[in-house]
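Notebook, student rotation project (T.W.).
Task set for the rotation: take a protein with a known small-molecule partner, predict the structure of the complex, and write up what can be learned from the model alone. Partner molecule chosen: adenosine-5'-triphosphate. Sequence and SMILES entered below by T.W., checked by me.
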Amino acid sequence: MITFDKVTKAYPDGTTAVNELDLECPSGKITALVGPSGCGKTTSLRMINRLIEPTSGTISLDGESTADMDPALLRRRIGYVIQHAGLFPHRTIVDNVATMPKLLGKTKKEARTRAMELLETVGLAAHFADRYPWQLSGGQQQRVGVARALAADPAFMLMDEPFSAVDPVVRSQLQDEFLRLQKEIGKTIIIVTHDIDEALKLGDQVVVLRTGGVLAQAATPLELLTEPADEFVADFVGRDRGYRSLGFANLDGRVETVAEPVARLGDSASEALARASDDWLLIVDPANKPIGWVQPANVVGSIRPDDVNLSGTVADAHGTMRALLDAALSAPSKRGVVVDGDGVLVGTVTAHAAVAAIESADLAGAVAR
Ligand SMILES: Nc1ncnc2c1ncn2[C@@H]1O[C@H](COP(=O)(O)OP(=O)(O)OP(=O)(O)O)[C@@H](O)[C@H]1O
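Predicted structure of the complex:
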């Protein structure tokens, strides 16, 4: 746990960057710090590893005040990732990552082995190891930055706009990979971003700061979307927050599926027609995993892959309300297909039933707002 206790940073010119900040960042979780430009996000982050010293107040790691720690030793306990990765330009990728293991006393060979493992962990192929940073794309450099921050196996990670220098597609991939990685490594992470969508996607806890470094709200993404503390947070979180909150509302137990008649590729048109409850019939594979929808009336002979309409999305029974609604709206039959964790058909749900489930759930207020 990283704890801020009445932490203030005032610069000599009179700017108060952070003002009496009280905050708890739980162990093994991601805390996303977000807010308008100049609200003190980076200052808050850099006070944790003492790149900036607080004017007053205390920051502690697992109850131990950082003020009492040797700054160099403190920084070894905390991985630090910055925008543009900040790699050493004249060192190869593997040497960039091996720097910390070497500092910690590993031999050259051990450090290289560790660095190669870390590059694999962050999804970089071994052939990148002997390149220089300028020979990598922005997204690949960010991965190296993460690998380097993990090299000392720190319990804590600080990340300052780590994904903002890459294009939106790569950014989204890096975010997904990062979430997968965090499931394995379970570090205590604070990530700074100016992008509320990134904060909501990555943060277990999202902390909104307002100008002057004042805490506006610290909450889960769902709470922030459904119960913004005030007008400032509501505006910052955005207009379609009711709809977006569905992306954080789990389906478990909130919606009942209806059994759906099915057919298989190769079944005859007449069989399919007899089985269908309306114009559309769901096609499944031999393992009962949905493939798509056919209109039996348009099938000549037996059902072939070309007859199948693939436009509908599929919702996981343990996924989100948003995915369920999307499945219902995107299916040509208007019945959203729900599957279990193995992709096997559970049943279908109409948009009407999905909305009814949303209205009856705790989310009702947020959706209506
Ligand atoms: N060395 C300094 N001297 C005076 N003021 C400073 C100094 N460093 C930062 N500030 C001010 O402190 C405030 C907070 O800066 P900080 O970099 O923490 O904001 P931020 O939320 O990370 O902003 P951004 O999203 O634009 O990066 C700003 O008003 C900034 O101008």
